[in-house]
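User: Hey, quick favor. My workstation is busy. Could you predict this chain's structure for me?
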Amino acid sequence: MGRILAFDYGTKRIGIAVTDPLRIIANGLDTVPTSEIFNFLDHYLSEQEVEQFVVGEPMHADGSPAQIAHLIIGFVRKLKKRYPNIPIQLIDERYTSEEAKQIIRQSGLSKKKRRDKSLVDKVSAVIILQDYMDEFLS
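Assistant: No problem, here it is.
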């Protein structure tokens, strides 16, 4: 059984989370500059079996697409073109960044580490992946 990779897409960075091979646990994997994501994925996919991509879909509270939505569509198109055998699932990521910030605040990390935006992106990706697992794999 292959892993599932989840992405919290941003214009500067992409937070990435991954399941264990049995798809039981979601873990933060990395935060990668957006411009380097496909180099990262080429390397990762050469070493690990991935059966699914999950991409966070940013929405406003009323359910309308966020301003960055067109960039997500472009990212998904590039994923499909480059990795045509890996299915992609979009999942609503409303409030994941706020939830990630709250989790980080409660974690007891130093103030300096709590201000690390890449950590927020990685934790957001974990939340996206866990939400996907709760909805589709349980």
